[in-house]
Amino acid sequence: MPSRSFALATALALLAPALGSCRYNFVPLIPPEVRVELPARITAATLTRSGEVLTVRATIDGRFDPGYLSAVWFDGGRELGRDSVYLDAETREASFALTAPNRGAYRALLSFGGNVLRQVELYEVQP
User: Is the confidence at residue 50, as pLDDT, over 90?
Assistant: First the structure.
């Protein structure tokens, strides 16, 4: 019997380092808090026609520095004009108008701070 208990003790002595490796040998570091700052975004934008006037209405949401919301008007691939409105924390809605007597494939690109945020379209004819 002594040889059997000796074999068991030897096996436990050899397995002890392997069993110790299953435990945490360090304290995990807690990462610093991540601050997420989402860019400004347009939550509502419409392009409508009323008679000969095309109107774009847009609402910007999120945290942003005061600046200009720009609109670039197109009929197909042809640029028709540009306009911009200054927005700040109190003024978050903008409206742009363009006189366009003819039917067309109109679209307006809305950008803020040099980044294109939205494109709105009104197809009265095939592009």
Answer: yes
Exposed e or buried b per residue across 63-88, where buried means at least 16 C-beta atoms within 10 angstroms of its C-beta: ebeeeebbbbbbbeeeebeebeeebe
Query: H or E stretch including 121?
Result: strand 115-123
What pTM value is reported for the model? Answer: 0.69
- The one-character DSSP state at 34 is P
Cα–Cα distance for residue pair 81/66, rounded to 1 Å:
23
Residue 66 lies in a domain: yes
Residue 126: is it exposed, middle or buried by C-beta count within 10 angstroms (0-12/13-18/19+)? exposed
CB atoms within 10 A of CB 98: 19
The percent of residues in the chain predicted with pLDDT above 90, rounded, is: 50
In a domain, 85, yes or no: yes
Is 7 a domain residue?
no
Domain containing residue 89 = 41-123
Number of folded domains that form the chain: 1
